[in-house]
Amino acid sequence: MKRLLDIVLSFTGLVLLSPILVVFIYLVYQQDKKSPFYMAPRMGRDNAIFKMIKLRSMISNADNSGVDSTSADDNRITPIGHKIRKYKLDEITQLWNVLIGDMSLVGPRPNVKNETDSYTFIEKKLLLVRPGITDFSSIVFSDEGDILEGKSDPDLSYNQLIRPWKSRLGLIYIENRSLLLDLQLIFWTVIAIISKPKALNWVVTQLTKMNVDANIIAVSKRESELHPFPPPGSDEIVSKR
């Protein structure tokens, strides 16, 4: 049923959102006459690398910088790219990855190989399922770029501030996944674009019902500043990336 839902909703989404996609494909191409798409190598289920299709929000060949994490003030982001990232328009093209089976609509967000190579034994469970466009962490950390803004080393800051909780939330999804939860996550991901506080309230309510660790619930409220924390399966804070 999950795969059937993926196929039906991803195809429907591509058809309904194609007018918006066509407009932004044109705008991205017009700014530098380069491909409007970025084929992002990501680790999928069972450590299989696939090409995640993203509407390009950065300058061409931005990945040559060697920096994997993106802050809101990253100078690689183009003017139109800021709009694309703000409204999550680069997620639309990933519906194609869902349609062909690389991804699911709901599941742990796919990561680059540099990151998955450093996963703890527990975090490697995230690679046992299809990665998704959204999950709990996509709502909680939808402002990832803002969190990393001004950081001298965005990759290290990601590993210290975001990864510990993003991985835990991904594992929680895997342990509690169901068709109903998938439908709810899809709905609240859309709501988060309009009203993140409402979406966060829903996330916190769900996590509370699941009796997850109090620290995870506290972080998911996003009411206080994030501090370095060890990833799941480790007692040490990541010190280098």
What does this structure look like?
Pfam families: Bac_transf (PF02397). The chain crosses the membrane at residues 7-29. By secondary structure, this protein is mainly alpha-helical. The model has no long low-confidence stretch (mean pLDDT 93). It is globular. The protein has ten helices and four strands; from the N terminus they run H-E-E-H-H-E-H-E-H-H-H-H-H-H.
Brief account:
Residues 2-194 form the Bacterial sugar transferase domain. With 241 residues, this protein is mainly alpha-helical.
How many domains is the backbone divided into?
1
Helix content: 40-55%
Distance between the termini: 39 Å
Mean pLDDT score: 93
Radius of gyration, rounded?
17 Å
Largest sheet: 2 strands, antiparallel
Task: Supply database-style keywords.
single chain, 241 residues, mainly alpha, two-stranded antiparallel ribbon, two-stranded parallel ribbon, 10 helices, 8% strand, globular
Question: Which secondary structure elements does this structure contain, and how are they paired or packed?
Answer:
Layout: H1 2-32, E1 37-43, E2 49-55, H2 79-86, H3 94-100, E3 104-106, H4 113-116, E4 132-134, H5 136-140, H6 144-148, H7 154-176, H8 179-194, H9 196-209, H10 214-221
Parallel strand pairs: 3-4
Antiparallel strand pairs: 1-2
Keywords: Membrane, Transferase, Transmembrane, Transmembrane helix
Transmembrane segments: 7-29
GO molecular function: phosphotransferase activity, for other substituted phosphate groups
